[in-house]
User: Fold these one by one.
Assistant:
Number 1:
Amino acid sequence: MGTNRINKDRRKFFQTSAALIGGTLAFSIIKPLELLAQSKNEVAKDEKTEQPLWGMGVDIEKCIGCGKCVEACKLENNVPREPFYFRTWIEQYTVKKDGDVKIESPNGGIGGLKQSVPDEDIFKSFMVPKLCNHCTDAPCVQACPVGATYISPDGVVLVDETYCIGCSYCIQACPYGARFMNPVTKVADKCTFCYHRISKGLEPACVEVCPTDARIFGNLRDKKSDLVAFMQKHPTEVLKRHLNTSPRVFYNGLSSEVR
Amino acid sequence: MNTNKRKRELVTEFSPMIEKPHPMLKLWILVLSVIIAIGLYAFYLQFTQGHQITGMRDNVVWGVYIINFIFFVGLSYSGAFISGILHFFNTPWKSSVTRIVEIITVLSIIVGPIFILLCIGRLDRLYYLFMYPRIQSPITWDIIAIITDLVGCFIYLFLTFVPDFAILRDTPDLKVPNWRKKLYRFLAINYRDTDSQRQRLHKITRIMSKMVIAMAIVAYTVLAWIFSLTLQPGWNSTIFAPDFIFSGLYSGVGVIIIIMFLIRKYFKLEKYIVQSHFVMAGIVLLVLSLLFGYFTFSDYFAKWFSHKPADINLLNTLFGRYFWQFILANYIGVLVPLFILSIKKIRTIKSITFAAVVAVLGLWLNRYLIVVPTLETPYVPIQDTRPEYLHYTATWIEWALSFAGVAAFILFFLLIMRLVPIISISETIQHERGQNSKQDESYNY
């Protein structure tokens, strides 16, 4: 009798636990797929509701490397003043006559970039402003273990600094080097397209301050916006297309030397 | 009665620390505690001032901590794997080694994850990992895998301990304080070594030994995926998971040999841990050094031959700035053990231990070369030219915490040895019983 009862109990225990484990397993397999289906639906819905999809155009041919955008960004977004912490920065590319490429970005370009290569050695030189590319398939969003990094409905990749645990995994996941650890908050930090400004109808600080209109900000869904016009008039390219991240920052005049 | 007498003999022989601590034990505990205390102070500094007092910067966001993490988890994984294999095939010489292997497994899975916590910038928000986990992030997979592995290893280790706890409980003249007698009684979970109990325990241990192998492979594969699923040059490679599996085993067997050597030497167990154990482990190490060398070679060869710009940058860093480290890790660390272990004449206990030391150090360096140079050569050109941002050098904080981790490992090992026999008594008795009458083999299958 006694063993019988124990056996029954045991069988029941195993049945319940198997059901629980199996259920959890099935749920954990189905749940992510559900998310995938949802995100596609969301995009379709957004298009109907005419929600903006923010993007930026960068005209390398117009950039003069004055560094005003970097300075404005630091002031606007409270980016630490020491060099190296940048939400946006400018790289100076100098192709020498012997084929070497020199890439410099002292202090991110604040105070203006100066040429360090003697004139007679230069084949060509140009400036490339860089920032977060706000990828449609962002590797950083994929990597975040707590969901502190997310893509807003209007297409901006943001970091919720109250959720971020500072594991640095997104910083490594980003192939564009756009993220950094903020030494004050100790969490990941990056360009937000000045989300606090664009949600009020203003332009990002770097765009507003640019003296040559090398940065164009706008709504990719609005066919009459400056950005769409810029993309129609110029042959634009994104950085590292082969990584399949589908960025929303488009460059005109992108030379093959740019990394 | 004869068995009982033998049990008492073995209790004294196998647990040199249970009744009376080794004369040096107090000194060791003191030294190790000081090292751990320094580590804790370093941790306090890091917690209050942030990661800026470590060598980790925006490019190299992961440093020595993550390398120690891979190393310790690899140790644990390989311990689980080896012990599982030994139990599964019921290897005749396993009883002298399995206990050591199992202790290594559990201790390193406790020490290892501490290091990944140190990489986190906001430790105060650690619980967010459990409150708001997102299943698509490899880090979440890793947390699930490691916690499962930890629990599985604990259960497995406990199961293998139960018969010995029972023997200790049933040894009335054991000179230990009362609380420890109570502890043994509690931990023995009423195991009386009857036939049915023994059979049942054997069955469970066999099931767990299989599960532990599977869990360990999953945990270590997921750990390799943390790297290989990102787009970084040098990491985004399909070979990472199998490479991690074999290199983990390589370091694990190395550490087992070193600990076997030390225990044999300091606790006079020459009768039970014999040269053939070292030779067996040495041959396993030999095979693993070949496999590890093969995987490493084919990884770097493919990178060099396919000539992608980012990979070439990485190789330039490896063969430029890290030339000597590269030679030490991937040539000396593979070829020296290979050379020592493949020549039968020089395969002595000392030389095998030396080969193991070289293998373990080489492997740690190899992990360093996987993590740091990749982060130093990202896709984008580095914006500022300040050298401390370009190149990673670990600060004393990181070294202090690393050594504290190793010290904690050794300290726990010593304390466990104070509590349990270092060679499984029950298995030795069963083995001897099996030799007396071959009938008992029926238990094993």
Number 2:
Amino acid sequence: MSFLVAAALAVGLLVVAPIVAHLLRRGRTPERIFPPAALVARLEAHSKERARLEDRTLLSLRTLMVVVLSVLGATPLVRCSRLTVERPHGASIALALVIDDSHSMRAQVQGETRWSLALEGARQLLRSARDGDAIAIVLSGKPARVALSPTTDLQAARAALGDLQQSDRGSDLENAITLARSAIANLERSERKLIVLGDLSGSALDAPDVSAPLENLRQPVNDCGLLDARRQGDRLTVSLACSAAATGARSLRVLGKQPVESLFADPGRLTRLALEPHLGSQVLSFVLSDPNADFELELGPADANPSNDRVRVSPAGTELDVAVVTDDAAAGVITGGPTVIEQALLAVRPEAIIRPLAVLPDETRELQGYAALVLNDPSGLGPESRGALGEWLDAGGVALGLLGPASSGLQLSSTLEPFAERSARWEPGTAPLDADPASLSWLGPESQRVGALTRSGRVRLDGAGLPGSSVVGSWRDGAPLLLRRAVGAGLVLTCGLPASVEQSDLALRPVFLALLDQLLTEAEQRRGSGSSWVGERWVFPAARTISVEGPTGPLRLATEGCDAAAQSSTACTPGEQSATPELAGQYVVTSDGVAQVRTARIDEREITDPPGSIRPATQEAGSGMDPGSVDASPELALVLLAAFAAELALRLGGEARRRQRAARALH
Amino acid sequence: MRRSLLQQLDWAALGRLRLAARRVADGVWVGTHESRRRGAGLEFAGHRSYVPGDDLRWLDQRALLRHERLLIKQFETETERPLRLVVDATASMGFRSEQASSSKLDFAALIAAALTRVAVRSGDPVGIDFLGGGAAAESLPVAGGLEAFERALVQLSLVEPAGHLGERGAELENTLNAVGRRTVRGSLIIVISDLLEFGDSGPRLLAMLGTAGRQVVVAQILDPLEALFPLEGPVRLKASEGPLEVETNASLARAGYLEALAALQARFREALRIHGGELVICRTDADPVRAVRSLLRAAEGRSA
């Protein structure tokens, strides 16, 4: 603080002057000669009291004026602590705000949620924006998305900011920063600033063009949360996670109409439970005595994020059921136990229920309980099986056909539909063949090691694709390895290699896990499962009447190829429909009158990941922030003016009233 | 060295007082006045109640036998009627508020001068006595003619508001007793004062002036501030005579003050009425002509 600031603020000490003047005035009543004073009654106490009451408003106003005058004198040297955008060159800038709307932003710091603090920071930044500045807003909840494309309309930016809603999504900060960077990259501004308003979700930012000014958002919080409570038969599996800063034992409480004793086989275990928090997730298992009871679980005591302390136990029948039709001899392992397909599925989705089937069911109702089907080296599908499978697929089923040598020897009435035409044939060969990693890149980094996949041959799918099929994976020689075909609301994937380790190396490669993961993800999107992540899109077939009722009301459905305005009219031909759950909890999806319960769950990393950090050098170099460069002079001057006007009005009003009373008394 | 009377005299002020007194007197009446005295005479003028000190020769014995009341017969006679003015020149009479055009003493001097003018024009002798007023306030013996008027003007111009009536009204009693002794039967005594420092004995002393065939009329001179008390809010009031200070809230105390003032006037009015006296209230912001008319009506026995 400089001498000038100190001197200006010292003027504030004069605040005692009106107080002293008031006390002096109060103590000395106006005196005048009045010969018949002896006839006047003494009312000393009352007169002093009147003096106090009459002068209090004026005293307050004068005190306020002295204080404001003092601060006004010190302004702009005295700064307000709020975010503003720094303009080293004074020119217009391009500003990208990355706002974290993930679940971790629900945690409270300093009595407010991180989300509200982030929004307030964004508002302050927008207030400091000037005409000509380009503003973009990107949300870093998973998946990252643009909430406002770059615009110079500051009013629109404020409106977009006001429309933002908190979600329970996971975090996708890295992609959000990439998105924000690309959004302002082509704008012709001398300065481009990228500001992250979030807890950084465990990331360590060191990019020089990124700043994260709100340090209070990165304070660790004491949080333990329930991820989900799944019911599998008579067993209840409860998943919970705690942050590194979590302290204090937690307990579980049942919220429901039925007493605990009637819900659990061993109710004492639940009531005695004292969970010591430790970083990471925990899974608790209970035996239910009433598998169909509807109740909620609550984790206590309340912590920094009370929004994840309660979860509804998923109703029976919402598990991700996967049917595996295979010959144990063909897909089994030497050590015994489940087949490689079952083991791989469990590795990908531990909570999934895997049901090995000896033969493909002939009736649709037998397939309806399954969300996905894996068929290994089928020796052809009969008409009844094809019909049942077709209806199941049409209703949203997802099937993976792993074709092998058995698929070549088809009986008369059997075909490979809906996986391939009859023309698919087994091509024996002992020379190892490589798949093309580039063609499988959509499966992620696991697709890189796909060399020498064959052992005894492969199924040639050239020309065997059914109408509507597309090649989504191929061999080095260009022959199709993987086909994809949409059937109604469902999906069929056809692979030219079986899971048998005797005939191919596929089941032992990471790409097989990636393929199964993709299969189950598609199944979750189409048929639902016990749980899917918040923010994952749910896809529904076209021309179905779909409604989704979420924890806070109906969910908006988007139709492929129709923008939001067109959806309300009949002009748009609807394509694939989709909905995205923004909040954790249970959703009731009604498709053509058939209701289904889906659960959107929180990513446990939103609880377990500590807040991220930003390298100090980066913060200083690329901050673009001046956390206190606001000149409050105009506001203070207005306050001073208002105070002067108020005093003038009070004085004039008082004088007028006094004159009126005197005139009335005289006449 | 004490200045002589002529050196002290403000001739300009005297001129103004003379003109004002003439104007006021001319506004009252001109030459139609007849000096009247009730008492012994030729023409019966009615009865009045007996008061101790009345001449028993005029006791109506028939009325005593008929009504068992002591009544004195009164007769009218054409004769000169001496006028004795008693002017209060104590410190409180120097008060003048913002609403008034003159101090109470100035107003009293104007009234006294006008009355002197009226009396002289009617052929009646005039004498003046002062209450307070310092060394310059010297009594004027009863005398007639324009010279008496001029002397009265000089004396009224010289007098300054000063002094007080002493503890328990000692000076008041001395002065009024002296006035009573010097005033002959049939005289009219007009006391011009604010009556604020007269104390408890004031009404009795004034009433006693109305005995022995004299008539007394009292003019209470009040500033509009004293008459209405239009002050507001907290105020500290200081009496002009004595150390009295009163801190009060004027808005709240107004009603009580006006009641006390009315009670004071009622006490004087009651005491004076016993001997046929009258009390006339005069405000310094009022027309002095009307004030003099009121006093003369009161002296005539008509309502003021």
Number 3:
Amino acid sequence: MTENFEPMVVGFVCNWCSFRAADMAGTARMKYPANIRLIRTMCSGRVDPTFILKAFASGADGVIVMGCHLGDCHYVEQNYKTMRRINLLRRTLAQLGIEPERLKLVWASAAEGGLLVEHFTKFVEEVRALGPLGLPVWAGSEVPATGELKEETA
Amino acid sequence: MSERIGVYVCHCGSNIAGIVDVQQLAEWAERLPNVVVSRDYKFMCSGPGQTLIEEDIKELGLTRVVVAACSPHLHEATFRGACQRAGLNPYLFEMASIREQVSWVTTDKALATQKAKALVNAAVRRVVLHQPLEPIIVEINPNTLVVGGGVAGIQAALEIADSGSHVYLVEREPSIGGHMAQFDKTFPTLDCAACILTPKMTAVSQHPNITLLTWSEVENVSGYVGDFNVTIRKKARKVNEELCTGCLICQEKCPKKVVDTVFEAGLGTRKAIYVPFPQAEPKFPVMDIENCIYFQKGTCRACEKFCPTHAIDFEQQDTILEVKVGNIVLATGYELFDPRRIPEYGYGRLKDVYTSLEFERMNSSSGPTEGRIVCRDGRTPQSVAIVHCVGSRDQNYNPYCSSICCMQSLKFAHLVKERTNAEVYNFYIDIRTAAKTYEEFYNRVLEEGVYFVRGKVGEITDVARTPEEEGKLIVQVYDTLAGVQRRIPVDMVVLAAAIEPRRDAKSVGQLFGIACGADGWLVERHPKIDPVATMTEGIFIAGCAQGPKDIPTAINHGASAAARVISRIQQKQLALEPIRATINEEKCSGCRICNDLCPFNAISFIEERGISTINKALCQGCGTCVAACPAGAISGTGFSDEQILAQLEGLLALEIRGTAVEA
């Protein structure tokens, strides 16, 4: 395990509840680790399991998927489908040798900025405890302007 | 062909620039692939900020635009507008939320700048893959559905009907009027509630543009803004409305008395065929078949015998109405907190402990005591305690302030003084009188000699400790101003109970496709700048369904919901986000996995061609089918696999602490 390991966590947030919860966390000036980077989809049901695998393959140490609470889905019931997929994917991850704990699914309504921040903070620590995923970064993942980016090392 | 991208970094005053090194970010972004210009500016959303983008599009021939600023929910539309004005398709734009997701939630400046770079990098990679899109235009049906006939719903219905459009007003009780009809006087003017409400009720029932459907409930809603199909169940009144004249002889002759737990809050009785109150609109009674002697025992039919117009119809069945509307206003109101949940206050156990709603009925001249304030045994109370914040501002029940109870309690104090000259004690945490002329009313009540004890009541009991306490209700309270425990014996206690979301608010939300917040109130689009619209286009909320409100605020809210609906009707059509799923027929294998995934029934299977197809009008763009298609045949406009994966790679290309990931 590397010292000073900073886990990279990708969050998939749905447009209606969890993205707005993130907005609310911002508006309320709540703080959470900078390790979380978010991608918005219209619904958590849009999160294709391959997005998650791709995230792990491209350097993420953890992935958190967030949607509306069960029963509150903007698209009626699509978050149930997300739940099914994530549970199945966790099994697949275990078979691939990736700790299933690196993938988390949580619900947060647009009013629950605080809850979202709690989940974020806790999950970053959980992933930190798991250590770096350490997969070789997928060769297909081109990183244009790498040289440029490298110069920016703070 | 390579794209020409412009990146614009907003300072948002010091909101972003205070944490993120915006200059460094902008300079860095200029070196990203395809980026031809990158600028930072104090306020990108301002007129000059937008002009900056517009001029660059024209002069530098930009084909894509990225703005790193606030949340897209705030200004995506603004910047899309700027693109459009400069002749660029507005969907060739992407926003990186470096305020809500970076500067406001991060304390470390270096980490924040690094994260902002990652978000900009992701947006730059994503935007390259954007496609020009055209918004979907829908026609707005001018008819409107208003659900709930309380004062907010009444106001909304009248405003819309007055503007010339048709309104279906659905109310589940036998009459419109809502809670306001139950009140006696209204604060702070002490206007009689019925006197100011009933003219509005009559206006509703006589309005040529309003179809009033009481004793009715919405069963199903389908469709989308501009074109909702609503199924309404009109419950059988057992009274033919064509024949009934509202003479109420049936009510007079009905031999069965029932405790009225709805309108009279359990303090009074009604008949088994009844109108809830004399000024009810419509005037037609309803038959309560659970209590009707004929329905329970098979004989009686007194109402039928005496009805002069033969309007009683024991055979009448529920009818199902299908209506088409363009917009919907939900004004479903509130429910009173049940103080039984606070057992130490003794409500339901101690006979002279009343809820605020019961006390309203007691004060009403048409109520069970004809306006006399009396104990259950008929005595006039010598002393009355009014307990504020019962179930409000209490972590055990509701954390929020119910906003109306302070003024309501002051009104009660005034009425008790005026009608009985009893001693009145108000037990409060804080007095909140924040509206026009409310503070003046508080001062007036103070001058009337009402006692105010600051402290949360611990217990209400009838167990006397001293001879003076015998036969009294004793209010035990810690007086936080004097710093002493007090036991105050009184004859009557009124609990200013909290106002709570309707028990079925959640299922109402589901029915109409909108959400309830943590407290259970229906959620508005934005709590400050858009408190009447919801996340679902075409569904608006009004009155206490959205949160506690007093009467003037509920009326304002109803009127503003109406204004929004009227403006929609005037526009005649509405442009919707073109985020929809489409099936590539070449790739579709006809496996039908997607068919059952869609809750809007937008996907159907074409038997003869062996492929599935998506109805664009029904598709809401969630993308669940896109994620599920094993053949990758379904693509989601605006959120394609390629776009999301490009964004993902862009995000992950920068490490947390500022070193790039190796390729």
Number 4:
Amino acid sequence: MVARRWSQVLGTLVANPWFAYFGTRTIYQGSAKGLCFPGFNCYACPLALFSCPIGALQQSFALLSPRFKSVSASQAAVTAVKRAASYPVSALLYVVGFIGLVGVLTGRLVCGWICPFGFLQDLLYKIPTPKLGLPRWMRFGKYFALVVVAMLIPYITGVHWYSRLCPAGSLEGALPLKVLPPKTPLPEVGWFFWLKIAILVVFLAWMVVTKRPFCRTACALGGAYAALTPFSFYRMQVDSAKCTSCGECKKSCPVDINIYENANSPECVRCLTCKKECPTGAVTSGFGRPSASSIFERESGPPA
Amino acid sequence: MRAPYVLLVVFVLMLITGLLLGGFGKVFVHGIVICLDCIGLI
């Protein structure tokens, strides 16, 4: 899938083109950060140009919280929070509308084609080691992450806990800012920094032995897109007359699913590898009108 | 099946309303906050 690899490289570069940081040592704060990037990319990354939709989502919930209090690291951030606190609903509408629109149009296409953190997981899994599967129940973790950690807890506590524990934030934000600190002085590293790094190390090791473990178990953005995938206008289809259930699709699948069991599974990241690998050409995809059967039942199944 | 179309309309309306009410700039402000706040240097 050369096209997908190039698309992932391009997605990573589009999300992180602020190379001026190396000269200015200033995190980009221009108007482009008013836009969300559709993939999972930390906007604490010194190179980030756009906002993380999950970071913005939970910050909106935190701002709506009656217990909201600033836990910011600088006076500038405290001031910014106070200003933003006047209009948290508009930000929430914008972010939910953005995530929902991407999800209902494409499902998890973004996860498979442009998400930088998904790209990293695809690359790490290529390291030759013994591989492990993933228990089915762990897939529900991403919905828990979305509803409880990224929305409910920020609303209850007023603190954006998902971002604080996020391994993408540690890799793209905390570590680079520690190695190449910005001009604005930052507080010293404390125990919480090392907790974040420990979570990151666990996920990185897991990515080597299991296919996309973060996407499948903990990505709140993936959870949102997954919930909308059965309703999305971009559809996968499997022709049951051509499908022989040979299993080639699962072997090549980056999230380890049998596409013929549920063509529009919430787990499917629409990478289209199965479409390419299918020896009988049974898998097709494209934009179309979702039908009731495709949403509430399985659109296709293995041949009898 | 109407559900996808209803969702599409709802999300588009939310996005436009958020933009009209200033959500664009607010996400920008949140970006600064999280940049300075979530690096774990505490």
